[in-house]
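Reply to dn_fold:

You asked what the input looked like. This is it:
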Amino acid sequence: MLVWERPEPPGRPTPAPLSRDRIVGAAIRLADADGLEAVSLRKVAAVLGAGPMRLYGYIATKEELLDLMVDAVHAEIRPSGGSWREVLHSLADATRRAAHRHEWFADLIGGRPHLGPHTLASGEAVAAGLNGVDLDLAVPAIAAVNAYVVGAVRREITERRAERTTGMDKEQWQAAYGPYLQRTFATGRFPALAMVVRDGPHLDPDETFRTGLGFLLDGIEAHISR
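and this is what came back:
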């Protein structure tokens, strides 16, 4: 029986009352502060002032705990809109904002589908928003938007982590490596790339995300309008 269907143990009046919601909330706080490496049933139990063995009555494995954490974040993702395009845009934007609030979330999405109730509710909102679009187009369109968002937020969060690890923000990194690129481009071996770097637009992360998403949605719209 999956964790979503398995009943919780009966409540007990103890100095440290437990529930799956409390356990998941504590795990999310640990992950938000110090990443997924900080999450274990032992550490969660310590935060809650309970013995680790008590947690196994609610959650059997760390994998179940991670599934519950992902599903809890999906409660923050509620796509909406009056058209299929607005719904897909809302899905992308809400997922990105959730990943910015919980960086670890980006590490856990993009693989096999998550099946928790909040995740299914988010999927239901998207599917309902594309009602009327042929399923042969709707299904790959949703998959394309999800793939774009996963790739985009992972890149953004990787950049955030690199800034923390190196102590250099994007501008400082560019200043450090700029002279190398100038010397390399001066050889004339990479003329097209040199033009892109020197003359192309330098968008911030929000602009980059919105522009790329717009390109994707325009392509989906072209297929639907056929």
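The chain has a mean pLDDT of 93.
Hope that clears it up.
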